[in-house]
Every structure is written in structure tokens, then in C-alpha cells.
Amino acid sequence: MKLVCIDCGQEMSSDDFKYQCSCGGLVDIVHDFSHYDTDHLKHVFHERLSERMSVFASGVWRYKELIYPDLPVESIVTKYEGNTGLYRSEMLSKYTGVRKVYLKAQSENPSGSFKDNGMTVAVSHGKHLGYEKYACTSTGNTSSSLGMYASIANASSYVFVPDKEISINKVLQTAAYGGNVFSIPGTYDDGIRFLEKYSGDFGFYICNSINPFRIEGQKSIIYEIAQYLDWKLPDWIIVPGGALSNATALGKGLRDLYALNFIDKIPRVAIIQAEGASPFHQMISKNKETIDPEPFPYTRASALNIGNPPSWKKARKVLEDTNGITVSVTDEDILDAKAIIDRTGVGCEPASASTAAGLRQLRSQQVIDKDESVLCILTGNILKDTGALHDYHFGKDLNGKFKNNIKSAELSFGKIKSAMETIRDLNGLLKIH
Ligand SMILES: *Cc1c(COP(=O)(O)O)cnc(C)c1O
Ligand SMILES: [Zn+2]
Q1: What is the percent of the chain where pLDDT is above 90?
Q2: What is the mean pLDDT of residues 131-157?
Q3: Percentage of the chain with pLDDT > 70?
Q4: Which residues touch 415 (CB under 8 Å, ≥6 apart)?
């Protein structure tokens, strides 16, 4: 395993951790899989599905050979992350107009988001190197995840969160795990720059989204989907794009699976951004060479509120490798799509629902056919943003299409009966589309 700069090609050792190359380029982890026997690995991964108490019970470390083969097992800090559900939904098919839609619920991770898939690997690497202080900048989920793993490792965490437009649920969760939360004036992007400058002085192991070990861990999401579907992936994989680490990991995981012959076809990837924070989509759709950072990003999907996504070069490569596309969707579409995903019983936070909103748009533009199979990656849990739930269902100003009001009525047969008559049939509403 080697750490290689994606810009200048310089190689670095994983024991002398460089989060970024001296030239400013991002670091990529390069494995040598040439001696692997795919059938043997399939067998090993299958056997590990019945593990309970070993590190291999984790849905990330099950694939250790493809993620971090050299790491001693004693260094692994795990909460049996991954192992999340894969669902099909009739209601979502109706809403999006595509017959076969899967939901991969990374929202079912221990801290409630896909950040756990990567964080277990970053904190394990930090522990292996002897670090006791971990830091990140975050719109919230990265910090909850780091707070959780640092506490499991009996280490401390320092997280920098913007003082506005983030979900209080995530901040409270982080503090409750014991994370030291710094609420900063400024944006996510300001926090990233601060940590890059001073983490050496503070002795922090940085767990920001470009940490290449996080990317390795997040590859497990697509490994797990492929394994659950007997190594046959759907035609399309749809993922939200904020800092673009998840899209990067998805593409890298697909390349691994294809190179090792686990799969014989690479699905197309669609990266969905929220309109108010869509610099990557702007760059791709306008055919620009470099990204123009958005200085004042705003979307209600707070996990996507990122104006200068650090991993844009890696994500662009994913589009090239997968014949992929980008889409931007409005907050209104995101929140309506979220209401539908919540109604399926699976549920997610706003950012995750951008996937279904994007799918609906791609279907109506005939980019995706009704008979193609599609998988949406749900990144965060339904309870991660209770403010959004409140505003949508009980708020006065927003007029969500699938609002589900609380019905106040006296406890009498007649009153409850007439209140029941006001309940709208969601299936009827869906048919309009
Ligand atoms: C972090 C996050 C995203 C964005 O992922 P990136 O890797 O930053 O593109 C989307 N949804 C949720 C719930 C997140 O926590
Ligand atoms: Zn370099």
C-alpha cells in the first residue's frame, strides 16, 4: 500500500502520515491487488457475514483486504459499522417513475450517517500511529462520527462547526459523545483551512473529508451493495455531493471491484447537488476546467452546504470512469422527496433525499429509462435534522406537498371519525405524477 499525490505523483509512507502533499495535491491510497484471488476473497467475505464479536463483523472491516490490508487488527476501532439495509420501495418507484429503485440505508450506521464507514478507518490509522487527539471540520455528521469513535478509542476529539445553518441535533450528538465542539463564525471551508494550517501545532490527527483513509473505508458501501446483490450492481448509482468524498469513494470502490473481476460492468454514477451549493455541477455542466468556489452556499440540506468541495478533481475522475453525470435540485424538491422516503418507512435526512429528487428529474428528462435499475445511497438518518421535519410537517410558511399534520381532536368517536376523514391518501397524490 502506497500514498501517492494525485497532482505530482510523489509517494509517501502510511507510517509518516501526510494528509496532503507538500505541493497541495490530495493524497490517494494505491494498493497492490495483483496477488489476490477473487474467488477466494468472495468466499472469505461471505464467511465473515456470520461473524459477531470480531472486527470482521464490521461491514467495513469485512473487506479489510481491499481497504487497509497491512493494519494490525489490534489497532482497529470499530462499532460494527456498515451492515446497513438495502430496500426496494414501490412508493418511491411511483414517485420517481422508475420501476426498480433500491435504497441503501447508510443512515442505519451507529452514529446515523455514512461518515462511520470512513471514520472507523481514519481513527484506526491514527491509533496505529499513536495519536490521541483527533480533529475535523464538519457540517455535523463527520463530527458526530468522530466524537463517537474517539470516545470508543479512549481518545479526545476537537470538532469545528459553523455557527449557523447546521442541524443542532448533530452538534448535540457530538457533544454528548464527549467531543469538544468549537462553534466558529464562518463557513465549513474556513474551518478546513484553519485545521490544515494549525493541526501540526496542536498535534491533531485530521479527519476531514480528504483524509485518504476515510475514502478507503467509504469504498465499503459499494462493496456491501455488490455483495448483497450477489455481485450484480444496478444500472445507476445515485449519490449526494457535498465535499464529494462519498462520490470519490464510490468511484474508487467500483474501480476495485471491476479490476478484480467481482463485477463485469461498471454502473453509471449520478452525483446530485443542491442548487444553492452546486459548484461541482456548475463546473461540469459548463464544461469548465476548474471549479469556481461558491462563497455563500445555502441549502436547507445542511450536509450539502459546501461551497468549495475539496475532492472535486477525484470526483471528476469518477464521472469520467463511469460515464457519470451531475444534477442540481431545488430545496423544495429535496424536501418533498425526503417526505416520500420517510413515508416508505426507511427515512433519511434532507441531504440524502437529493438522490431521489435527482432521480425524478433524470427520469423526467428521459436520461434514465423506467426499466433501468437504480440505487440511491441514503447518507443520513431521519432524526439527524428534526428542525427540517418540524418545518415541513408542522411549519406555517413551508407548503410541503406531502405534509402530514398533527390532527388535534377531542377523544370522542364522532370527532375522531371526522378528523380521520380529512386524512389524505398519499397514493392518490403520487398518481398525479
Ligand atoms: C457528509 C454528508 C453528505 C455529503 O457527502 P460528501 O462526501 O461530503 O459529498 C451527504 N449527506 C450526508 C447526510 C452527509 O453527512
Ligand atoms: Zn504533490
Answers
A1: 85
A2: 96
A3: 98
A4: 409
Assess whether pLDDT exceeds 90 at residue 189.
no
Only one residue has cell 450517517, namely 113
Cα 241 to Cα 327: distance, rounded to the nearest angstrom: 10
Whether ligand 1 lies within 6 angstroms of the CB of 342 is answered as no
- Is the minimum distance from the CB of 78 to ligand 1 under 6 angstroms? no
pTM across the whole model: 0.96
Residue 13 identity (one-letter amino acid): S
Cell of 153: 478509542
What fold does the segment set 37-113+211-433 form as a domain?
Answer: Rossmann fold (3.40.50)
Please state, as a whole number, how many other Cβ atoms lie within 10 Å of the Cβ of residue 73: 11
Q: Where in the chain is the domain with CATH 3.40.50.1100?
A: 37-113+211-433
**Which numbered ligand comes closest to the C-alpha of 25?**
2
- Return the residue matching grid coordinates 487527539: 133
Ligand 1 centroid to Cα of residue 275, in Å, is 15
Residue 268, amino acid: R
Residue pair 14/32 in contact by the 8 Å Cβ criterion: no
